[in-house]
Specification:
The complex is a heterodimer. Chain A has five helices and six strands, in the order βαββαβαβαβα. Chain A has helices at about 25-40, 85-100, 125-135, 155-160, 175-190; strands at about 5-15, 45-55, 60-70, 110-115, 140-150, 165-170. By secondary structure, chain B is an alpha+beta fold. In chain B, about 30% of the residues lie in helices and about 30% in strands. Chain B has helices at about 45-65, 70-85, 170, 180-190, 195-210; strands at about 5-10, 20-25, 30-35, 95-105, 110-115, 120-125, 125-130, 150-155, 160-165, 220-225. In chain B, α1 packs across α2 (about 70-85). The chains are: A alpha/beta, B alpha+beta. The interface between A and B is small, with 14 and 7 residues.
Chain lengths: ~210, ~230
């Protein structure tokens, strides 16, 4: 029997100093843990969800979870907010991963790239971002983003995402949790779809408002 | 074909129509081998695959008659115009396209591809694998897609011998590329021994027998060698 096709989900999160304000980094840590847990039971005979996690902060971008089936991931990092926003370095790292056919073979479904940030890139992001979104096989990935707060570079993120519906803005820590639910819905609906490479734009989850 | 021999077949899979198309053409200066595999997701892809093969031959002939340069863009434009003239929307007729042009005079071989039908060349005994790997699953580059896809074109010269195989994915998905030179030896030996008028029928029978029952794709191939 043929093995399920990999469905890569590549996440890059901002751990710069500004994420330390208003409980954002704590919300991010909690949402990441729930996000990965929610994907762990969603692989099926057709698609195996694989996750890679990158972060950018201080003066560098790091790969904190190499691409792995979601069900194999047991340790999710707990981030501390510190330093600059070297987003360009994260774009470069993600590009290298997607172009590597040993890591992501041709039989894989299109990857989903997710970026979450509350700031403006502090490095030269233009060339690596263009390489990621315009050149080679990485240009075919679905790209989603969350802009947290007023200081996020929304113009840059609007250019980054593959559809305007995939750019989400938020200003509270709980919006980070909602965003990851949205990403989960998008990814899991692809695993259940007859054509997982057709764009799936789920409805953004409503606030859990209790009317009384 | 004078100096050149070819065998070809196109066999319907388990769909109601054969979405593949093949066409060969030869004149005093050129040999053209064209193969197309209509996309199953497009409702009229069999029209697209047949029309692109005819468009290739028409564009080549026009280029010879008028000395105008031949380009992939011209071929695709001609394909679109032909489909629209017959009342079809090109978006409903998506197809892959592969073709080989052989200039008999200067012995130049040009191989052109859009999509995952494969072209293999063995020139003077040297195997050239033009296999294009897909980026991801379920992404097939095709003629008629809106993202301006273009033919990937390579050119080579040969001195003495040429063998070339074009095959749709119904066949090439089951072939190990490294075994193509051995398969070419076998095809030359076997089909040279069969009278020309019976070769294509014999090939169709052999393809039907050789491929696994689970392979429900249309299966098409053209194989050429010089005698």
């Amino acid at each position: 029997m043929q093995k399920p096709r990999p469905l890569p989900v590549i996440v890059a999160v901002d751990r710069s100093g500004s994420m330390g304000a208003d409980g954002k980094i704590e919300a991010l840590n909690s949402a990441l843990k729930n996000f990965i847990a929610s994907l762990q039971g969603e692989s099926n005979s057709k698609a195996e969800i694989q996750v890679a996690l990158y972060s950018f902060g201080r003066d560098t971008a790091t790969c904190d979870i190499p691409l792995n089936p979601a069900y194999n991931i047991s340790d999710v990092p707990v981030y501390e907010a510190y330093g600059c926003t070297p987003m360009g370095m994260a774009f470069k790292e993600m590009k290298e991963l997607i172009e590597n056919r040993d890591q992501i073979p041709s039989r894989a479904y299109k990857p989903t790239i997710v970026i979450i940030t509350d700031g403006i890139p502090t490095d030269d992001y233009r060339i690596p971002m263009d390489a990621l979104i315009k050149d080679g096989r990485s240009s075919k990935a679905f790209r989603m983003a969350m802009a947290i707060g007023e200081d996020a570079d929304k113009d840059m993120l609007a250019e980054f995402v593959s559809d305007s519906e995939f750019l989400v803005s938020g200003d509270k820590a709980r919006d980070i949790v909602k965003f990851f639910k949205y990403v989960t819905m998008s990814v899991t609906s692809r695993t259940k779809s007859q054509s997982p490479d057709n764009p799936v734009i789920p409805t953004y989850p409503a606030d859990d408002i209790i009317e009384f | 074909m004078s100096g050149y021999a070819s065998i070809k077949t196109s066999i319907k899979g388990d769909k109601s129509v054969n979405q593949d198309a093949i066409l060969t053409y030869e004149d005093a200066t050129l040999v053209v081998l064209a193969l197309a595999d209509g996309l199953g997701s497009a409702p009229c892809s069999e029209k697209g695959s047949r029309t692109i093969c005819r468009s290739i031959v028409s564009a080549v002939r026009k280029s010879i008659l008028t000395s105008a340069p031949l380009s992939g863009t011209n071929i695709v434009d001609y394909w679109e115009a032909q489909l629209r003239m017959k009342g079809f929307n090109p978006q409903d007729c998506l197809t892959t396209s592969s073709f080989v042009l052989i200039n008999k005079k200067n012995k130049k071989v040009t191989a052109a591809q859009i999509g995952d039908s494969q072209i293999y060349l063995i020139l003077d005994g040297i195997f050239i694998d033009n296999t294009k790997e897909k980026d991801f699953a379920n992404i097939t580059e095709c003629v008629g897609s809106s993202n301006g896809v273009k033919y990937s074109i390579t050119s080579h010269f040969f001195e003495n011998t040429i063998r070339t195989l074009i095959a749709s994915d119904g066949i090439c998905d089951e072939l190990e590329p490294n075994s193509i030179p051995l398969m070419a030896d076998y095809l030359v030996k076997r089909y040279s021994a069969i009278p020309k008028r019976r070769r294509n029928l014999a090939l169709s029978g052999e393809v039907r027998r050789s491929f696994s029952k689970r392979n429900s794709d249309d299966k098409s191939m053209i194989f050429l060698w010089n005698e």
